[in-house]
Amino acid sequence: MSTKSTNITFTDDKVAQNNRWQANGHKGGVIWFTGLSGSGKSTLAFELEQALFERKYQVFVLDGDNVRHGLCSDLGFSAQDRAENIRRVGEVSALFAETGMVVIAAFISPYRADRDLARSAAKSDFHEVYVHADLSVCESRDPKGLYVKARKGEIPDFTGISAPYEEPSNPQLTVETGDRSVEDCVTELVTYVEEKFAL
Q1: Distance, CA of 145 to CA of 77 (rounded, Å)
Q2: Which residues of 151-170 are buried (b: 16+ CB within 10 A; e: fewer)?
Q3: pLDDT tens, 25-65?
Q4: 11 vs 162, which has greater pLDDT?
Q5: CB 42 within 8 A of CB 186
Q6: To which H or E segment does residue 31 belong?
Q7: Domain spans of the chain, in order of start
Q8: Three-state DSSP class for 26?
Q9: What residues contact residue 21 under an 8 Å CB cut-off, 6+ apart?
Q10: Which CATH superfamily is domain 17-194 in?
C-alpha cells in the first residue's frame, strides 16, 4: 500500500526479535480469528487469552467491537470502511507481534483481500483461524440481537444477511464451534499456540 507521507525513513530497532522472543519465552505473532457474527470469535479470543496468560504468555486481544470505540471509531460498515478497519488493525497487530507478544485479533473480516492485507503486515507471523459455525447456528445464538435487526432491514450491510462473507481458502486452523463446547475449542487453540509459538 502506498503512503501519502513524505520525507520519512525507517528507524532501525536496537533490540533483536530473537532477544524479545527469548525474554518472553515464546515467539510473537498474530492469531487472526475470522468468522460470522455469533460464531464465537470474541468468546474464544478472551478465553484463549486467559488460558495463555496463565501459562505465562505475553498475550493481548484486539476485539472488533472494542477497537471501534477508539482506533476505528470514525469508520462505519461499508466495504470501504471495513477494509480500512482491517488495515488499521492488521498494522497494529503486526506492531504488537514485533514486540514478541501473541496478539489475538477477533474480527469478522469478511473479505479475503482485507485478511490478506492484514497477513502482509505480519508476514510469516500471521496465523489465520477460521472460527466456523453455520449461519443458522449463529442466528440461533444471536448474542447481540443483530441478526433479528438485520432480517428486519434495520442494519444495512450485515455480514451473512445483506453483505457477503468470503470463507478463508486456506486457514492455518479451522475451529468448528457449532456443536462443541468452549472448553474443547480453547484446548484445541492452546495446543496450536504451544506448537506454533514455541522457541
Answers
A1: 17
A2: eeeebebbbbbebebeebee
A3: 999 999 999 999 999 999 999 999 999 999 999 999 999 88
A4: 162
A5: no
A6: strand 29-34
A7: 17-194
A8: coil
A9: 27, 28, 100, 199
A10: P-loop containing nucleotide triphosphate hydrolases (3.40.50.300)
In the annotation, is 109 catalytic? yes
Contact 158, 145 (CB under 8 A): no
Q: Name the active-site residue from 37, 39, 42, 109.
A: 109
Cβ atoms of 92 and 75 within 8 Å: the answer is no
Cα–Cα distance measured from residue 111 to residue 83, given in angstroms and rounded to the nearest whole number: 8
The whole-angstrom separation of Cα 123 and Cα 117 is: 10
Q: What is the rounded CA–CA span in Å between residue 108 and residue 165?
A: 8
Between 26 and 5, whose confidence is greater?
A: 26
Question: Nearest 5°: phi and psi at 73?
Answer: -70, -15
| Reduced 3-state DSSP string for 122-159 | HHHHEEEEEEECCHHHHHHHCCCCHHHHHHCCCCCCCE
Give one DSSP letter per residue of 67-128, joined into a string. Answer: HTTTTTTT--SSHHHHHHHHHHHHHHHHHHHHTTPEEEEE-----HHHHHHHHHHHGGGEEE
- Amino acid identity at 120: S
Rounded to 5 degrees, φ, ψ at 31 are -105, 105
Could you give the C-alpha distances from 119 to 75, 78, 94, 172, in angstroms and in order? 21, 21, 9, 12
Instruction: Provide, rounded to the nearest whole percent, the portion of the chain with pLDDT above 70.
Output: 96
C-alpha grid cell, residue 30? 498474530
